[in-house]
Design brief:
Blueprint lengths: L4 E2 L1 E6 L16 H7 L7 H4 L5 E2 L6 E2 L23 H5 L25 H5 L1 H8 L12 E6 L6 H10 L7 E5 L14 H15 L4 E6 L4 H12 L7 E4 L1 E4 L5 H16 L3 E5 L17 E2 L7 E10 L6 E6 L1 E3 L2 E2 L3 E2 L13 E2 L7 E2 L4 E2 L2 E4 L6 E5 L2 E6 L4 H16 L7 H6 L10 E2 L23 E2 L1 H5 L18
Parallel strand pairs: 2-4, 5-7, 5-8, 6-7, 8-10, 10-12, 12-20
Antiparallel strand pairs: 1-9, 2-22, 3-12, 9-11, 12-13, 14-15, 16-19, 17-18, 21-22, 23-24
């Protein structure tokens, strides 16, 4: 059974020479703009300012829109129901009226005027914007990445990292339950997710070792991959997950087993970073209700939401950073869980929706943290020989994994479950230590507010300050092995 969907958006490819100006919506083919349902939002006038260039960010979840032709995609290897694309999997467009939130289509976006050299500066700029601690690079740490399809070829990595002035990191593929690294020459499919995850993590933590765990896209495959990564030696600093779907589309048993695998990981010192979804507060469920995405809604995963970012790529000065919301099909996930109770560390929080007064959380609030994810200003990556720009919360999970790997490499230990420490420094309505609060925008139903909210969580990282929240070695705890009853 198909269980999870990749969480990132493809925006542009360079076959026609437009990649270097990949931030230009006007350079996209018209059908791409229409199927992505990309439109102007509240920050349009800032975006048109020549003084600032939008910077890349990401997650993983869809490429073409509902009208895309299935025949254009590479066939699934064993089961034609294995779909990489959220829209193709549904086969029918979801009526906008049934999905809470997201502005109506407002026409094509004006080009941003980004210079090719500016786009090349993105990864170094992001480390400045998010204040990744100087003198850290992930050396001595491991980043585990979970993938449920696709693959990577070394040729892409050998071209991509040197183009950024970075040595190719050590990348190892590990098969789980018979799955393996199978690059399919399909940039619009799962290869895009795999290479996005590797390239974001490797660019931002260049000395960390990256282990990619390939599993089948089933409940059992997904859970086994997480368990194998958690119990590998050495224990990874972070386990990055960019796959998921609405939590009520999982069985209770599968959610429980995955959560238990996360508990093991945190006890061993690994932090699980999980993308919060790319379809706003509805999470692509056409019932008019709000839905949290799983596995991000597990209280033992650090749920990663998304922003839209405008900044000077040379200085790193931020012009604006707001909630990512281009439409109901291009917006950060975030909601209140129906499956998990409010964790103790979120017990003091409330959530704001529309004009109604904020109310106390009735379940686990998602996300916990955020970073840039808008696909219109997505990450430049190399996939199956082509340069592309991708966006979504999928890049946020490996971005946070890279930051944690850098902190782990410097401290000599992993962080495990970070939320108790992070939320302890953030009383309701205040900005927590180690974060820059995002207070503008919405993801459909939920509003950005001062302090934690169900759009961008506690905010985006201030890495140097965040390092001060992670003190002392993780206690030695023996967790049961992956085969334990």
């Amino acid at each position: 059974m198909v269980k999870a969907l990749p969480r990132s958006w493809h925006q542009d490819r360079s076959g026609d020479g437009n990649l270097e100006l990949g931030n230009h919506i006007s350079s996209l083919r018209p059908e791409t703009v229409n199927t992505m349902n990309t439109e102007a939002n509240h920050s349009r006038q800032v975006r048109q300012s020549p003084a600032f260039v939008p910077l890349p960010g990401s997650e993983r979840g869809t490429e073409p829109g509902p009208s895309a032709t299935p025949g254009l995609r590479a066939p699934a290897p064993d089961d034609q129901e294995i779909e990489i694309n959220i829209y193709l999997r549904r086969r029918q467009p979801v009526p906008e009226r049934l999905l809470p939130g997201g502005p109506p289509y407002g026409g094509p976006e004006t080009g941003h005027g980004a210079d090719p050299a500016d786009i090349e500066l993105v990864t170094r700029t992001l480390t400045r914007i998010y204040d990744f601690p100087a003198g850290t690079d992930g050396n001595g740490s491991v980043i585990a990445i979970i993938e449920l399809g696709g693959g990577y070829g070394m040729a892409d990595l050998q071209a991509y990292f040197p183009s950024l002035g970075i040595l190719v990191p050590k990348v190892t593929s590990i098969g789980v339950d018979g799955a393996k690294n199978v690059p399919g020459a399909d940039p619009q499919g799962a290869d895009g997710e795999v290479l996005l995850d590797i390239e974001v993590a490797g660019a931002l933590a260049p000395k960390a070792e990256i282990k990619v765990y390939f599993a089948s896209n089933t409940d059992a495959g997904f859970i086994d991959a997480v368990a194998k990564a958690a119990h590998d030696s050495p224990t990874p600093a972070a386990i990055s997950i960019s796959w998921g779907q609405a939590e009520d589309q999982w069985t209770e048993q599968a959610r429980t087993q995955m959560d238990e695998a996360f508990i093991d990981a945190t006890l061993l010192g690994a932090t699980v970073t999980a993308a919060a979804g790319d379809n706003g507060s509805a999470d692509n469920v056409p019932d008019g209700k709000n839905h949290a995405d799983f596995p991000a809604s597990s209280p033992h995963a650090q749920a990663c939401g998304g922003t839209s970012l405008l900044a000077d790529p040379h200085s790193g000065r931020v012009a604006s950073e707001t909630v990512w919301n281009d439409s109901t099909h291009s917006a950060t996930g975030g909601a209140v869980s129906d499956a998990f109770d409010v964790p103790a560390w979120q017990g003091h929080l409330s959530v704001a929706t529309g004009t109604a007064p904020a109310t106390a959380l009735a379940g686990r609030g998602v996300p916990d943290v955020a970073a840039v994810a808008d696909p219109r200003t997505g990450y430049k990556v190399r996939i199956d020989g082509s340069d592309m720009v991708i966006g979504g919360t999928s890049a946020v999970a490996p971005l946070w994994a890279a930051l944690l790997a850098r902190l782990s490499g410097a401290s000599g230990h992993g962080s495990g479950l970070l939320q108790p420490a992070l939320y302890a420094s953030a009383p309701a309505g205040t900005t927590g230590a180690g974060f820059r609060d995002i207070v503008t925008g919405n993801n459909g139903t939920y509003l950005a507010t001062a302090g934690w909210d169900a759009c961008t969580g506690l905010g985006v990282p201030v890495g140097t300050a965040l390092a001060g929240r992670i003190r002392g070695p993780v206690p030695a705890i023996t967790a049961p092995g992956p085969d334990a009853p």
